[in-house]
Amino acid sequence: MASASSTYQRRYDVFLSFKGEDTRNNFTAHLYQALCQKGINTFIDDHKLERGQVISPELFAAVENSLFSVVVLSQNYASSRWCLDELVKIVECMKSRGQRVLPIFYNVDPSDVRRQSGIFGEPLAKHDQESLENMGRVQSWKDALTQVANLSGLWKTTLAKAVYNKIRSQFEMCSFFENIGEDLAKKGLIRLQQKFLSQLLEEPNLNMKVLTSIKERLCSKKVLAVLDNVNDPLILKSLVGNQDWFGRGSRIIVTTRDKRLLASHGVINIYEARGFSDEEAFDFLRHYSLKHELSINDFMELSSEVLDYAQGLPLALEVLGSFFFSMTREEWRNQLNKLKCTPNLKIQEVLAISYDGLDDKEKNIFLDIACFFEWEDKDYVIEILDGCGFFSLNGIRALLDKSLITIYSNKLMMHDLIQEMGREIVRRQSLQEPGERSRLWFHEDIYDALKRNTASEKIEGIFLNLSHLEETLDFTAQAFSRMSKLRLLKVYNSEDTSRNFKDTSNKEKCRVNFSKDFKLCYDCLSCLYLHGYSVKSLPSDFNPKKLVELSMPYSHIQQLWKGIKVLEKLKFIDLSHSKYLIETPDFFGVTNLRRLVLEGCVSLRKVHSSLGDLNNFSFLNLKNCKMLKSLPSSTCDLKSLETLILSGCSKFKEFPENFGSLEMLKELYADEIALTLNLSGNGFVTLPSTISLLSNLWLLVLENCKRLQELPVLPSNLIELDAQNCTSLKDFSSELLKSPLPNWDLQKRKLKNYHAYGNFPALNAFIPGSRIPDCIGYQCSGSEVKAELPPNWFNSNFLAFVLCFVSFPLFDCIRFEAHTSFHCTSSDNSPSFDISTRDLMYITTKLESDHLCLFGVPLSMIIHCSQITHIEVSFELMSWDGDPIEIKRCGFGLVYKNNEDENHSNL
Question: Active site includes 420?
């Protein structure tokens, strides 16, 4: 740390503050020597203060009489009360005298200094405990440490300027050309080239009339040039051309709002500047608070409001920081309230520069996102805006390149201030009359325009959130009569809209009254979303050629339209919870439909057969359509169908016969339906994993699915799995049996007539394979296996016995009958008993390879289970004529929950 000397009255350039034992003989010594060599008059201590001494007034005078203070924050700095007192004085001079302070973090983490944690927290806690007199001082020390730590990084200019200043000494010629876009607009290209070359050559009177090319003058020179705020590709083409314009080792740095400019010119390395994190933004604001006397409570409250508004945008933090912190409490409270209604013009003007560089279609896309589509799925928005003719894929790329939007999890996102800028552009189209603006999203503006019939032909989009309405609003033909350019109309409840369509909420309340004669101008309409549409059908002249989405959840629709409507661009239909809908319309003219949502249409009885003609159709939601009994057979022609939801269709009986031809099906939801599923002859490689959710599926047939490679977890109530000739199927995992076994008794009661006689197993599985899984512990060649069970084999985790055998390939059409005798001997001479299973399988096709048959015998079918010590199992197969069929190998195993009993040869 510094100490006094006889020269205190001199004015120093730099005051060095440091902890002697940490850095006196290394870093600080080298720093002091370097400063002196540069002619910088630097104060440094040349004596140590002894313990118990106080800092003299002369030392404080040295701090006061210095232009700069350099604080070397090392590991033991906070352990010295004298260093900390010195630091408090330095901060005081920074506030009162404008002294510049530069912190140096020597082998310490700045966050530890800022938060007084780690090696900076322990000594301060010790100081606090040493004596009562330190209590007030400790808090002042903490405040000083925080404020100095927050100065790190605040004395930098822009990132480009910082890089430029750091490396410029390595180059022969240097130029930092600020706001170059403005110079091009004001002075033209020739003057721009002249200024650029003048800066590099340091020739202020350069005569452009005799000027040779930039390439000729600079191709042998090592050049550093920074072109700031480039907004026109002509600038790059005329000033920096190609790499051969400059000598070896040259560096050209370009800053721009438009990434496309860089890509089009072949710029290799691109760095995207990010916004401040909350912590960085908070530290940035502390810089402004140091210049003004604010209580800690006022600072925290004001900072919280500013951070919430700025959302990490450095420009906004700079503008608002310098603006607010000079005000009184009452003034900044008033300004904050104003800011919520009226954006700050300085911020808006800067942000609008990127918007001004867009073409007309890109501007429309930007305004639509700002007003309507933030947080919407990018692909969905592209579909809707393409319907408006905006070429939105390229347009969204342009907005990304100009950093006007971002994409997260495929959702379009926009900084709050950029969204506010976009909405302000629309608001300024007509400050006093909302009906004269292009877009309406604020419920009071919409209410005003429709209630007073002032909506004009300028309106292109209306998004009305019903949750904000307090009074019922009438939608009449008259109110919409002049909206000839209407592209987007959405009346929605923010609590029940979802783009995934897999589930919708149960919201029927609607504060909009649709008149019976309600109609629109359909010429430009791309999106029509009317929550609670109260008319029984659409108007007879409904024919919007550009319509992409038609959504009417909770409507009173009974029949959407009669006959055929040619709507070739229509891709999404949502009639969910339309409880009066009886049948779907004819889809013949809706050739590009992809999604149909009919969830909760409790009166729906018929799906039109034309659905099967839709080549691009991928999603069908029929959840809780309780009157629906079947799907048309044409459903099996939907080659693009990926998701089918039938959950809760309690009267649904069976899938169409060729249901297995749905080769693209990935998700199938059909819980609460008792059904069989025949997917024979299919070409799929895997089954949808959601098949395990079909809790009432009892029969799954996969015959001749020759490309099928693996099975998912089986449904919990499955009784029979037939996978004959699934020749690509990998080794069967006995884990697949565990899901059905615990629910066997329940399923047996549901299917009383599954077998008319005899006992039958919990699960039949018939699959290709010549090897019994190793986890089936008792195996033998031939048709019989005997085994003595280990002691204590039976416990509460036991589920069932699994029996299995392997048959040889068979090339004749035969009937399999399996008779198994399950003979058990108890330890206390209680009667043995047999369990027989008959008519296990009916095989009516040629078996091309060995096949493995497995079936489970659950605990509920076995008496005296805990007393069993020996088991004998035999199998017998017969042809249609009763002739015996040879069995290659057989075995049995014990199934336990969670593989907890490995010593018992469990599965």
Answer: no
